[in-house]
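Note to self: keep these together.
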Amino acid sequence: MVAGPGQPLIGYAIGMNGESVKTLEQIIAEEQARTEQRSKDLADFAFVASEYQRVGAEFQRLAAKLGIPLPELNLPLAARVVPAAPSKDDLKSSVASAPLNPPRLTIGQLIESYRTHPESSFHKLKFRVRQNYEAHLNRLVAEIAPMELREFDIDTLMQLYAGWCDGGKKIATGHGMIGKLRLLSTFGITVLKDEDAVRLSTILNKIRVPTGEGKRTERLTAEHARLIRAKAHEMRWHSISLIQAFQFDFADTFGQIDIIGEWVPFDEPGESEITRIDMHGKKEKWLHGLHWSEVDDRLMLRHRVTSGRASEQKFVTVDLKRGAMVMEEINRLSPMDKVGPIAICEMTGKPWTAVQFRQRWRQVANLAGIPKEVRNGDSGRPASADEESESGVFA
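Structure:
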């Protein structure tokens, strides 16, 4: 809507958000009144300061005449120049050039900064974890990218959460989406120093949502592990038996990815001589899995364990002789089998992919009579719902 003759210059902004907006003439008049009052106050202040300095100088002269010691007074206030009040035309130009509603940070802009800012923790995530984050971030962009951070309140967030949960069928998804909003608001506070991010974080901290299925109580028992290993050998998937042995004997040390490793794009950080071409024709390399070169003559394994962040690594040393199942598997191997990655897929001759292992392990477990509610991840160290969704490999 364009203002016509006699209409307020910015009348088109009225009612955009259901709020009244002052006209440009009203804003100029109020600003000019404030400026004129400030000029008058400054003039009064300068006069009083001048008198104070004059009286102070006379006070010093008399004190000197009477021999009374006084500290020298330093009163430069009289020299202060009182600025002239700006003209109405100057005010009009200044106010007109300033945006009535300055742009504020949106979710889409916050996500883009999180992905690209050099100080973002996003760059430190392991490849598979970063992929999981991307799925959540892409959905946020698709659904609420234009929303400004200041627009969020508890009601809005709970409506979004209800939609993400899909009527209670996807509680873990809703939990994950709220978790990513918390992560983004923290980034907005610590890196971007954005005030609206502080407000959003405060609101999110008042929200408590269930994680989904809650803490898992199912455990993969020693008998389960024995049955899976026996069935794997029967089906000639010997590497699955070896992996299961490591997962059971050293559950407090190694997760699934620590054992089988992961395939990542070739340009990802990290060096590896083990590469392949994926189904899309792109070159990948293998990282993070157990390697026979890490095992010495005393069967001591020293391996660098990586958390969700690729930059957070630590060395662990385990005595393989403590693992009864692992030793049974090792004793089955020939010296030629103890070269390269510990877990080699018999089908490809290369380390397992996460999807391959998940599918094949489930097939073996089903044939071994393992209850479907028992997962491969249940044989590892206890994992939260977030960890399971981020790994993307539990079957």
